[in-house]
Amino acid sequence: GVAQGDTADVVLGYISANAYExxxxxxxxxxxxxxxxxxxxxxxxxxxxxxxxxxxxxxxxFEENNPGYATRERFxxxxxxxxxxxxxxxxxxSAYILGVRRSGDIGRREIIIEPHLGGLAQASGAVATELGxxxxxxxxxxxxxxxxxxxxxxxxxxxxxxxxITRAAALTVNGQPASCTxxxxxxVIQLGQGKYSGALEYVK
Length: 204
Description:
By secondary structure, this protein is of the alpha+beta class. It has helices spanning 5-23, 31-41, 44-58, 87-97; strands at residues 100-102, 110-113, 122-129, 132-140, 144-151, 156-162, 169-173, 176-178, 181-183, 186-191, 194-202.
């Protein structure tokens, strides 16, 4: 990008600190770049800012009389509601809240499953990818992060769960203790095709 290294960190920090205020001035399409900048930082605060922006800026497009696919060209009255910018939060809901993204070239048949709940207590859904439908379910509480997954045939997944690195935690997968590696604020484990359920539980 235009900003590299330390400069990129400064720019992303400014965007994060001013995201909510800036959102009101942005058009629906430009939220794509704002959400991308917030999720790149992978912090709980930025995840919460992204969810708040989705609710505030796009909330009216998901009311009963509008399934959310169409938006106005800009927020507020004054333009016709026929633009496809409703897809902007829809992508980030799938890729970051539900957490499913393809990893690298399609031929590798690898995905990343990395939830960013942003203060939501739970989320679940099915994400259509080039490699098949991936189903995820998340339940977050103070002492436990529960998950359920359905990974398509012949697909390898990297599961990266949110982790409070200041607390001791134990991971279970399908009722059995499981080992993981810690990367930043994530507990990471590799999984193959199949159905999984488990939890990351903090030791009291």
